[in-house]
Design a protein that fits this description.
There is one protein chain. The chain has about 120 residues and is mainly alpha-helical. It has one domain. It is about 100% helix and about 0% strand. It is built from one helix and no strands. Keywords: Membrane, Transmembrane, Transmembrane helix.
Length: about 120
Amino acid sequence: MSKSNNSHNNIDHEKLVLEYHKLKHEKELKLLELRHQEKQDHEKLVLEYHKLRHEKELKLMELRHREKQDHEKLVLEYRKLRHRKKQDRKKLKIKFWLGLLGIISTIIGTGTVVMIRLMM
């Protein structure tokens, strides 16, 4: 019995060893698959990160461009207003001097008329 029992034990042992190696191999395959999937997920995340970063940079560039355009518009508007203010001042000065000349000429004219009447 010991020989048959021993042989039976050997067969069981070999089956167990085979099962162990099979399970070990399956485990290694699953680990490899998981690592591969993890690597793919990581690459996807990196690509998504770079895509989002690029989009963010584009939006920033657009915003800066828009800000620059708005600033240029404001500067032009300011210059127009300043120029208009200068023109208005010039017009006021001209009106003032013309009015003053009108008053002076009226006084002189009236004085001349009075002088002429006095002489007559």
